[in-house]
Amino acid sequence: xxxxxxxxxxxxxxxxxxxxxxxxxxxxxxxxxxxxxxxxxxxxxxxxxxxxxxxxxxxxxxxxxxxxxxxxxxxxxxxxxxxxxxxxxxxxxxxxxxxxxxxxxxxxxxxxxxxxxxxxxxxxxxxxxxxxx
Length: 133
Description:
2 strands
């Protein structure tokens, strides 16, 4: 409903104007039509299209701008891919390091407990043998 109010000032094309039948140079059509005048009553003017002549400096500027845009886009993509690969590789390396560290700690703890138990048993046996004598 609010669109009708906003669209009230926009002119509407009510007639399609066919292109000229002759092979004339390319032209652009412009119409200065106030919103209250229908297109059928507007005066349509034809203006010749002017082609811009590009000199060497224009081509160099265009080439530089395109190169810079492509470089920025490629670098953004490279940064993303590189970061993702580093994360994946780092995750694998950290996983291996944690597994190895856990195994070393487990082995060291196993060895320490074995030594402590062996010493305790040896001390108890020695103590019992000394009580028997």
